[in-house]
Amino acid sequence: MKLLLAEDDAMLADALTTQLGGAGFAVEHAANGAVAEYLLSKHSFDIAVLDIGLPMMDGLAVLQHVRQSQPHLPVLLLTALGEVHVLIAGTGGDAAAAEAATLSGVSKVLFADDHAYCHGMGESTAALVAGLVWVMIVSGVPGSDVRWLACVLTIFAGITMVSNVRYYSFKDVNLKKSVPFFVIAVIALGFALVAYSPEIAMFGFFVLYGLSGYVLAVVGRLKRKSP
User: Fold this and answer.
1) Which helix (H) or strand (E) holds 4?
2) Beta-carbon contacts of residue 72 (< 8 Å; ≥ 6 apart)
3) Per-residue pLDDT tens for 114-125?
4) What is the number of domains present in the chain?
């Protein structure tokens, strides 16, 4: 099933393309409204996902042009607030039911893991900076000796806090379910490290967590480029 994804945020587009591709959709990406309008006018798609805030031509303008050439094309409109507006043309009967099912399926793919992932590190960036301060205090290292490291880390934390990079949120962790032995071993190792050196454990964890989002983004982009 061919799907047009019109999204100007490159990292978000890569993540959505990976999700939709894994669900069996053949995704064509447009980075702005003008390209999206051109692709929709020249090619046939089964569904379109449009970001309202597209550059050059916003999502609503693209939708207006699409309705002239493909009046029955199912469309999902994405807003900056993360809301989804489902638009189905009045085809009636089985056709309308099929379109509704298609849009519902795409919506589930796009947002099924919203509870498991978040965009940006959020408040965790404060723990990252605080971890560095804690390690330096315990180690007796003067602040003047690590001022450049602190500067780079603070800039990284600020950018990461407001970025669209996806991070695992741990919200879907269910301690009531059985877990593999490997997970139990990792947890035990974590407790041992915290007991031995809590400041290094805290700082190390948030450094790895901060890098994990970018690793996921790179892996997603490589998977997208691979044949």
Assistant:
1) strand 2-6
2) 89, 91, 95, 99
3) 556 677 787 788
4) 2
